[in-house]
Amino acid sequence: MFIDLDCRFDILRLSKMLKHRINGQSNGSIKKIDQEHMDFDLWNNDTKKNPTYDEELYSLCMRRFLFIRCYDSFQFLATLKTLHYRIQKEQELHGISVHILMIDGIGAFHWIDRASTFMPLGATNRKTPSLQTVSETVVQEIRKLLLLHPMLVIATKATIFGDRYSMTETKRNLGKLDASNSRSISSTSLQLPYREYMPSVWQTFVTHRVLVGASGLEFSL
User: In this protein, which residues make up the domain named RecA family profile (predicted)?
Assistant: First the structure.
C-alpha cells in the first residue's frame, strides 16, 4: 500500500513500466537499455499489438499495488483511521494482505500545518490541530494498525541541511556513510548532515534511518 503525500507519484508511468517488464520476461529476457530508450519505449509501446503480452499477469500485479493520495493532514489522518477497514475489504474481495505500507513524504504537510496552526478554519473560530497533535495521532493510528495487520512501514521525507554544517563537512559525512558499513558507525561518532524537523513523537517512533546521499531523501521505518 502506497500513500502519496507529496502528490508526485505517477501511476501511469508505473503501469507502463510494469507492462514493459512483462513484455521483456515473456520474450525470454529483460534487455538492459539506457533511460532515454526506455522512456521512448514506455510511451510508444502498444502492448495490445504484442501477442506475448500477458494481460492477466498485468492485472494481477496491479491488484497487488494499492494506491492512496492525500492532499492535506486531514485526509491523511482520515486515511489512517479507515485503513484497517480498507485492508479488510481488499482481503475479502481479492484475498490480498498488505505486507508493506509506504508513506511517501511524511513531512509534506509539516510547514503548511505549522503556518496555519493559529489560523481559523473557514468561517468558524476553531483552530487547526497543532503539529504535535497531528504527529501524535499519526503515530497512534499506525501503532493500532500494526497490531491488527503486522507489516513493514517505510516513510520518506525530504531533508534540510543545517547552516551549522559546511559543504565540506557535509561531503565528508556523506562519504563516511557511503564508504563504511552502517552497522559499524554509532550515532554518537557520526552526526548526520541534516537538521531534524519532525516532532519528537515521530522521531521516537522511527526505529531505523537511512540517508540517501545526494538525493536528499531520508528513508525511515
Answer: 1-160
State the pTM of this model.
0.70
Question: Which tens digit of pLDDT belongs to each residue from 158-215?
Answer: 887 765 444 455 455 555 544 444 444 444 444 556 778 889 999 999 999 888 766 5
The three-class DSSP label of residue 102 is strand
- In the β-sheet with 2-4, what is the strand arrangement from edge to edge? 67-69, 2-4, 100-104, 152-158, 217-220, 209-212
2: which strand partners?
67, 102
Q: How far apart are CA 51 and CA 166, in angstroms?
A: 57
Q: Which three cell numbers stand for residue 37?
A: 530508450
Supply the pLDDT for residue 147: 95
User: Which residues make beta-bridge pairs with 4?
Assistant: 69, 104
Three-state SS at 79: helix
Round to whole Å and give the CA distance between 140 and 83: 13
Residue of 118, 191, 102 whose CA lies nearest to 153:
102
Q: Where do runs of H (alpha helix) occur along the chain?
A: 11-26, 35-44, 55-63, 73-94, 110-115, 131-148, 167-179, 200-205
Element (H, E) at 217: strand 217-220
Kindly report each contact of residues 171-179 with a partner whose C-beta sits within 8 Å and lies 24 or more positions away, as own/partner: 174/211, 174/213, 174/214, 177/211, 177/213, 178/213
The dihedrals phi and psi of 126, each to the nearest 5 degrees, come to -70, 135
Three-class SS of residue 206?
coil
